[in-house]
Amino acid sequence: MTSTAASLRLQDRLTAEIEARRDDLIALTQDLIRIPTLNPPGENYREICDFLDRRLSASGFATELVRAVGSPGDSDRYPRWNIVARREGARAGDCVHFNSHTDVVDVGRGWTRDPFGGELADGRIYGRGACDMKGGLAASIVAAEAFLAICPDYCGAIEISGTADEESGGFGGVAYLAQQGFFDRVQHVIIPEPLNKDRICLGHRGVWWAEIETYGEIAHGSMPFLGDCAVRHMGAVLHEMEETLFPALAAKRTDMPVVPEGAKQSTLNINSIHGGQSEILRPDTGLPSPVVPDSCRMIVDRRFLIEENIDDVQAEITGILDGLKSTRDRFDYGIREMHRVLPTMTEKDAPVVTTVTDAIRLTLGKDPEYVVSPGTYDQKHIDRIGKLKNCIAYGPGILDLAHKPDEYVGVDDMVDSAKVMALSLLTLLGPKD
């Protein structure tokens, strides 16, 4: 039998093995959804790591549970637990790492199904985190287990991680693991985020979060002329942003293949505004006292393009504030950077990209679409801290469903994505002759 014929036979056996594990893939996804790993505050992280430990240990992986001690949010009540599982091959070779976050966002309103029920209906599994990204985690596990069954004498190593806090920045998850050197032994990373099964996500835009505070002077609300209203000062900031900053951002465009189309420009979101006294949460606590607010805080979420410089991004905001300080009576402000991530984009000729491209062609009979995410995900830490560029996001699920009511993942999409992942393992770690 020629090497080409043998390779084709392995591919056929591997895809058939994935099909045979369809019911297991469904059950695994349901089990993962039924562990409510809500973030914030960070619930049941240890429970899901213990579940993954049992599953992966049974498949021959050596597992390690890692608590991100001292990371943002880590506490005795809500410890930031992660799991890293590794299985060594028969011979030396590269390491392929599948990274999935285990946390999910708040349920929110509008659900017609149990958000943690894992209901299967019409070929879809419903639940919070179904597509973002427990379906992807399940697909990577089944892909790895199927590959091990067909190619037990593979080269190199396979790693699977379940990590915390991606939805709140990933500092208690991938960032911590990268700081501890876990990615020093890795050559290829696939993050099964829900970018659609026929897309390869090469990276993401940059982000800069900041808190702006305007100052005033407290006084009796019936005599506001004796004080100085910080909320009105913030209103002037908003007005200037509307007049100058938002139009300028809309004019900036990128050559990055960002999806959706609206994210090909620079954007700014006003994430929150808080001015004056705290809101009354219950009607029986009485009316607020009549005072002029002496502080107003606004959090801005600026997403920027690979063509932009982070210093210029900051200067656009501080320029508005300094301009108002020089022209507006009694205006003063403070600004605090909360978070920054530079844009990242893996090259199309990187080994993991070309490998997954070929696997998509084999599985779906079409070329993939190369995209860039409008928001960041854990590739930022693998690139920035782990110093590993050979990283992509690829997984099942429809991006638009993430964080929505009645979130779901399609079973066929998971099966196809698992085939792509398994075929990628075959290329990177399988027989070479």
Please name the fourth-level CATH homologous superfamily of the largest domain.
Zn peptidases
Strand order of the largest sheet: 1-2-6-3-7-15
Tally of extended strands?
16
Count of domain modules: 2
Gyration radius from CA atoms, angstroms: 24 Å
Please provide the ordered H/E string of secondary-structure elements. HHHEEEEEHEHEEEHEEHEEHEHEEH
Layout of secondary structure:
Blueprint: H1 3-20, H2 22-33, H3 45-58, E1 62-67, E2 81-88, E3 91-101, E4 120-121, E5 124-126, H4 130-150, E6 155-163, H5 174-179, E7 188-191, E8 199-204, E9 206-215, H6 230-250, E10 267-275, E11 295-304, H7 310-327, E12 333-341, E13 344-345, H8 351-364, E14 369-373, H9 379-384, E15 391-393, E16 408-410, H10 411-429
Parallel strand pairs: 3-6, 3-7, 7-15, 8-14
Antiparallel strand pairs: 1-2, 2-6, 4-5, 5-16, 8-13, 9-11, 9-12, 10-11
Please give a quick description of this structure.
The chain has ten helices and 16 strands. The chain has helices at 3-20, 22-33, 45-58, 130-150, 174-179, 230-250, 310-327, 351-364, 379-384, 411-429, and strands spanning 62-67, 81-88, 91-101, 120-121, 124-126, 155-163, 188-191, 199-204, 206-215, 267-275, 295-304, 333-341, 344-345, 369-373, 391-393, 408-410.
Please describe what this structure looks like.
The chain is an alpha/beta fold and 433 residues long. It folds into 2 domains: 3-204 and 343-429, 3-Layer(aba) Sandwich (Aminopeptidase), CATH 3.40.630.10; 206-341, Alpha-Beta Plaits, CATH 3.30.70.360. 34% of the residues lie in helices and 23% in strands. The strands form 4 sheets. The chain has a 6-stranded mixed sheet. A 4-stranded antiparallel sheet has the order 10-11-9-12, with helices on one face. A hairpin with a 2-residue loop joins strand 4 and strand 5. The N and C termini lie close together (12 Å).
